[in-house]
Automatic annotation (TrEMBL):
<dbReference type="Pfam" id="PF01909">
    <property type="entry name" value="NTP_transf_2"/>
</dbReference>
<dbReference type="InterPro" id="IPR043519">
    <property type="entry name" value="NT_sf"/>
</dbReference>
<dbReference type="InterPro" id="IPR002934">
    <property type="entry name" value="Polymerase_NTP_transf_dom"/>
</dbReference>
<feature type="domain" description="Polymerase nucleotidyl transferase">
    <location>
        <begin position="23"/>
        <end position="64"/>
    </location>
</feature>
<protein>
    <submittedName>
        <fullName>Nucleotidyltransferase domain-containing protein</fullName>
    </submittedName>
</protein>
Length: 289
């Protein structure tokens, strides 16, 4: 999108935020930062990247988190909807300020009025020479996923690759019609059809079935599908990735499939992690992620 349109979108976010700052769910928001190509002054930024810091000490938020754990729904959807509605073009990170390794520009913090926030926004000068920021701990497999993968995760995987403990390949999982009673039972019992985890789960099963693998041997996002012996592992949004090396050693895993960002409509980008040297993998399993 052009910079003028991106600027108008951020102005709209700030107006919605300040107008509703005393009403739930926006009453939870403490700070908003902008980062990425727009913050560097690019004339044709991609999506505008905003980082939102909020406090979740509210029973209504607790209910959304529990609902998310039960049905695979993203509790942050209420914050996105309150700030942008159904408009596209803004990407959010939540409560990640202490984990990111790129520059952030403060737009708003609780107590600021709209004029103050807009002054900060318009102080970001356009720069025809602005490009992508220098990124650390990057591999081609991580391209386009780096905003979803903290630097510590990227460094951990690179350490494993360089030590010969694992190999990592990038793939995009495909939506497929699956007629398999075990798959239907497992996916439908865990996630609603509208959940991005429902779609991701079916795509993982489809990938296994296309390769002639038994879905009963899958451990999917923290739970065995059927068998106690599960040499195949899959997870979503890096939630269980800290267990990857242990699963590939102690449980004789043959692969780990990580869907980095489950989504209802966009590509289901995944990392397929395969075990390498047993000794190196054992050492990696002792590295804290």
């Amino acid at each position: 999108m052009d910079r003028e349109r991106a600027m108008a979108m951020v102005e709209g976010v700030l107006k919605h935020l300040i107008d509703g700052a005393d009403e739930w769910p926006l009453s939870m928001v403490d700070e908003v930062y902008v980062f990425g190509s727009f913050a560097r002054g690019a004339l044709q930024p991609g999506d505008v990247d905003l980082l939102v810091e909020f406090h979740g000490d509210d029973p209504r938020w607790d209910e959304l988190v529990i609902e998310g754990l039960s049905y695979g729904r993203d509790p942050h959807r209420v914050l996105r909807a309150a700030m942008v509605g159904r408009k596209r073009g803004v990407q959010f990170l939540f409560n990640a300020r202490r984990r990111v390794d790129f520059d952030l520009t403060l737009l708003w913090q609780r107590g600021d009025d709209l004029a103050t926030a807009l002054t900060r926004l318009h102080a970001i000068a356009a720069d025809p020479n602005a490009g992508r920021a220098e990124r650390h701990a990057m591999l081609p497999q991580f391209e386009g996923l780096d905003h979803r993968m903290p630097r510590s995760v990227r460094e951990y995987l690179i350490e494993g690759i360089e030590a010969g403990a694992i190999t990592v390949e990038r793939l995009t999982l495909q939506d497929r019609d699956i007629d398999h009673p075990l798959v239907d039972k497992h996916v439908h019992s865990r996630w609603s059809p509208a959940s991005p985890l429902h779609r991701a789960g079916r795509a993982v099963f489809a990938n296994l079935l296309e390769r002639g693998l038994d879905p009963a041997q899958l451990h999917l996002h923290g739970r065995d599908v059927d068998n106690i012996v599960t040499p195949y592992f899959a997870g979503f949004s890096l939630r269980y990735l800290r267990s990857m090396a242990r699963c590939l050693t102690e449980f004789e895993g043959k692969e780990w499939l990580e869907v980095v960002n489950p989504t209802r409509t966009k590509d289901l980008d995944a990392l397929r992690i395969l075990p390498g040297s047993p000794a190196a993998l054992e050492r990696l399993s002792r590295v804290r992620l």
